[in-house]
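Margin note from the TA: students keep mixing up input and output lines. Inputs are the sequences; the output is the structure of the whole complex. Example:
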Amino acid sequence: MVSRERWSSNFPRWFDWILEEAEIYDYGRYPVKGMGIWRPYGFQIRRRIIDIIREVLDGRGHEEVLFPLLIPETLLQVEKEHIKGFEDEVYWVTHGGLEPLDVKLALRPTSETSITFMESYWIKSYRQLPKKYYQIVSIFRYETKATRPMIRLREVTTFKEAHTVHDTFEDSERQVLEAIEAYKEIYDRLAIPYLVSKRPEWDKFPGALYTIAFDIVMPDGRALQIGTVHNLGQNFTKVFDFKIQLSDESHDYPWQTSYGISDRIVATVISIHGDDRGTILPPNIAPIQVVIVPIPAGSEEDRRLVDKTVKEVEKLLAGHSIRVKVDDREEVRPGAKFYYWEARGVPVRIEIGPREAKNGTVTIVRRDTLEKMETPVSTLVDELDRLFNSIYETLKERAWNYMKSKIKRTTSLDEAKSWVSERRGIVELPWCGMDDCAAQMEDMLEAKTLGTPWPREDAPGMKCPICGRDAVTWIRYSKTY
Amino acid sequence: MVSRERWSSNFPRWFDWILEEAEIYDYGRYPVKGMGIWRPYGFQIRRRIIDIIREVLDGRGHEEVLFPLLIPETLLQVEKEHIKGFEDEVYWVTHGGLEPLDVKLALRPTSETSITFMESYWIKSYRQLPKKYYQIVSIFRYETKATRPMIRLREVTTFKEAHTVHDTFEDSERQVLEAIEAYKEIYDRLAIPYLVSKRPEWDKFPGALYTIAFDIVMPDGRALQIGTVHNLGQNFTKVFDFKIQLSDESHDYPWQTSYGISDRIVATVISIHGDDRGTILPPNIAPIQVVIVPIPAGSEEDRRLVDKTVKEVEKLLAGHSIRVKVDDREEVRPGAKFYYWEARGVPVRIEIGPREAKNGTVTIVRRDTLEKMETPVSTLVDELDRLFNSIYETLKERAWNYMKSKIKRTTSLDEAKSWVSERRGIVELPWCGMDDCAAQMEDMLEAKTLGTPWPREDAPGMKCPICGRDAVTWIRYSKTY
């Protein structure tokens, strides 16, 4: 019994469906709202995405660490803007066993405070800088908005937070650029497009000088924030009285940046590369890259030959480090197996029946285009290598084209309003640079301000649609998650 | 300025010293008792140990998952013995933001309850069994005893907990054996010895039928528990009313086991393979396997030749996937570099001076024996391969011999008493099998009961030193952590 959901026309349902159908993530059964379970298949997808994050960050000189989950109230309160930004949504531990604790402990919502506190012990001199730490941990936010698996959770189980320290403002600015490059590299390797914006003043990270954000348009036309980069200035180092020796022997507060990526990176990969049959995983992160389905037909002898060929092909691929699985369940028909593995996004299916076995060939079906072809076993490994690349390129091009089609630049507020209200994506309007005009546009569009293009873009000859003054740049709005 | 601590004569100080000196783990500065920070070097050791755990478990058909940190009080209470065992040491979340929560949430002390709850949704038939899940997560216990870095923590950041389900008791017993084999394999790969005991009734895991434990003798003669395996019987499946269809079409509660390894695995590797200079890492988990120290001497031309050779050797080793680092700090003398990397346990040091550079050789110093030898660059890669194996074998043999020397089998309570009170290790005494006699021995020895040998051992002709009846087996005692 095939039950599927429409990818583009009913995305929220499709997303819930695929998490359950492909056994990626269990959501809604666990008796705490906003918390779910990574099931084995989903865990393996997540793990491979984390491997890519690690490779990219390690390759750029980041060092992985692990800080405590619990942050005492006294530490979290040190930076005033920061605590104001989080105090309504922090979980508090108040008791150990039956005893009340002297100081309440927060489940970390993010770790700027605890990391800056420890850095003040470890870092004494400009010679140790720049220093780039990161950790991949659970964070907790008592969300009052409607929760959604992987997208808006109370326990975010995959929070990669990087924290860097610099001896000059200029070096922290360079780090912001490096962080943006690193995030582009991560998303490129997942064939995921992105739009980079500088968030408006009123939506920056609590305690930061400014925030640069990566957004994507989901299949229902709403924008999803999938990464943020903050220049923290000296805000945290000052309040923690964290000074270092500079090259001229004077002492001053160092500069910091921080940047994060969450579970949403997994949600994005599963969703953007999807269709009505399920998800389509890029081969580099697919837990299973090739599934072999034996086609049972013909005589007893035919079957033995098919079995033998299946085993040979499995061995051949495994020997070339291809993640291969044979689906030899006797009680399941081939059609049901196709459905099963298509939902799970396995990039390539190989069918082997008596005809193929006799000819020394296999039938290959690629998941992205569903094209079929027959290939000799002798050239199969090369063919798969080519195919994996082609699938990656196809997914990437398709995803970028899709996103571009969802971004509308216009000077008309009416056109902008219908674009966002019909959930067709993101709009870009000319803007004079005044917060008040941006706020009015936000109200009129009933959408969220994503901010201005990054890198900054001029809007020559354009007028702000609210006040009529010359526009200095563009500003982006969208319905969001 | 060299400050070191004595490994065998003052182990507790040595352990604190090495964590700080080698920048492994920061403990005592973070403002919550019993919680520390994995620093970059320690994190990389830990990560490689985790990789081995994953390899061994995945290779035996375990599937990695990730469950929520927070367990509602209502779920944790379902199994009565279980909650009794943990209620004094659970951290409770009582507030989300400023609002009190309807149901208190525990920071997981272990996950039997939440995992069994979800398994009851996922597992319906014997055909899905055996099922072996595991996760590697933080757990929390509000310890009232003195805390110790990695050994007795309030946040245990590396808890590998496996949870399995079976259709028969026999299969759960087979799983206990598999778990023990898996743990032996993990510790063997780390060159770590172990003693396997069946814990006494009064010290089994809360909710289990029985507990098998792995212990080791630390350098101060105290035993440390480094792994436990529990047969849970049907205790948890019954209270969660989790039934499955059996092969005869009847329905019954399935059987479970669980088994865990904690941060202590890292503490053990660092400690057991130690000496007065620091730790000695087995090459398979050393973040840096070879450090190259250029020896600056001779003419300007000599130095250029040394630099050139250093770069060539670095490239050669990196090209063979050897984790190599060149310590080219100009301001630090070679002797200080030797000290630095010896403390960090880098298994092999390579020295290259003008003489070596001219001869096409390098000087190799192995960390375990401190033996020096000169080797031609042309055979260096093979030599290192041989050396890594030899270091592993030497560490393993040394550690096993050390532990064997710390276990005393005796029939004399007096001899046993002086053995444990002088912290010479573990004693084994004949035992009649009566809990009362075991408890009396525990009192007299002022030591902890580790339990009986696993597999079970007879004690033919021996008498219980308390009651004088025939002994049925041996029983182990030790000072413990």
